[in-house]
Design goal:
The structure is a single chain. By secondary structure, the protein is mainly α. It has helices at about 5-10, 20-35, 45-55, 60-70; strands at about 1-5, 40-45. The chain has a single domain (about 1-70), classed as Arc Repressor Mutant, subunit A, CATH 1.10.10. Strands 1-2 form a two-stranded antiparallel sheet. Helix 1 packs across helix 2. The radius of gyration is 11 Å and the shape is globular.
Length: about 80
């Protein structure tokens, strides 16, 4: 589960990771629209979502999850 509020804020702050957060924001908005999930605060990523996001960010899946956790935007892993 991802904290979309934090991701959105981080996408607006100039930093070395800003571009990644911008890409994650675009990706998660697309998922929210396709699922018609208008909560906008938390998103549960499915396995396919994780794989696609890892490809977009040029990371291995485990590396993606580790990075999201380090950045404090990963709320839980099921």
């Amino acid at each position: 589960m991802l904290d979309l509020r934090t991701i959105s804020r981080r996408a607006q702050i100039e930093s070395p990771t800003q571009e990644r957060f911008i890409m994650i924001t675009r990706f998660t908005r697309s998922i929210l629209e396709s699922r018609q999930d208008w909560n906008g605060e938390i998103l549960s990523l499915r396995n396919e979502d994780c794989r696609a996001l890892a490809l977009i960010l040029n990371l291995e899946r485990a590396e993606l999850l580790r990075w999201l956790d380090e950045e404090k935007v990963l709320l839980a892993i099921r």
